[in-house]
Amino acid sequence: MSEGSDPFASPGAFRMALALSVFLHHTTSYNIGMSAVLIFFVLSGYWVATMWAATYSKTRAPYLTFVVSRFWRIAPVFALCSVITWGLLYWRGEAPAVIGSHARQVFSNLFILGYNSLPFQANVPGWSLDMELQFYLVAPLVIFLLSKSIHVLAIFVLTTVLSQWLGGAATVAPFIIFFALGVASAIYGLKPSRALAYRSLLATLALLFIFAALFVKNIALGELQGRDLVALSSTSNLLVAVMMTPFALYTVRQKSGPVDRMLGDLTYIVYLLHWPVLGAIQTGEGSYGNRLWLCSEALVIILAVSFVVWRYFDHPLNQWRAAWVASRKLPASAAARFAG
Known about the structure:
Elements: H1 11-25, H2 33-54, H3 62-91, H4 102-111, H5 127-148, H6 153-161, H7 176-187, H8 194-221, H9 227-230, H10 234-251, H11 258-281, H12 288-327, H13 332-339
Helix pairs in contact: 1-2, 1-11, 2-5, 2-7, 2-10, 3-5, 3-11, 3-12, 5-7, 6-7, 8-10, 11-12
């Protein structure tokens, strides 16, 4: 886990930067949100594999403990943000008349599974949490297979390529290779050097600068037909995610203090909460100057409310969850026999 001390690569701060990239995606035409989500998936794969080896594999009923723990970690905040989102929709009189099956809506808004295939998604960023939870269900198998050979990555590449015939976006299949890359990094100790990590970061920032220049050019010249140049394609987002991955995997091996860990926890809340707040403030209306002011106001509200949610809801629940997992740990001798 933490092996270095690079203040410019703090893991919590990096994750917050990714969350703010999604905020930028939803407040401008500078569409880099998907690349941030793909990097989140890589980081998730790394941390899940690390936690499985260090903790969950040494508990009673490891798979059950793992699934309950990970669901416990993400579902309460997801459900709370769903309630906030729907409350704001009804408050603004914008709740849709037709949402498909009400039972399905309630289930997925509370328990996440199936959210990405809902006919109406009240909190659009929630789709990625559906993929995350689906990954948790198969993560121990992914870890087991990759522990046998790193060449198993080819299977996950093939799964991603063939995903449209394996359930498409309703399943984790299109994204499994990103989770698997993180898992492989953890299992085989694939550690990008500091030099490689910063080359990765600088190259990615240079590419993003080029896209930002196109963004400014289109605004200045009013070239509406140039919108496709501004909106990053799925291929461009994939390229950005791949280029940034070495730096992302470098950050996970840096020391993280209490403030940085808090930032890491806040990332998840900011990611889910920003969508309903942006909708409530209607940041997409008016002149560029007015929209900038509204977006700034929204960001302050999002960060403030996220902190309150973390301090009085998420953090206490997480401490309770961690204590429950600790209570299920096997004695050292039993854990060694189980591992053997």
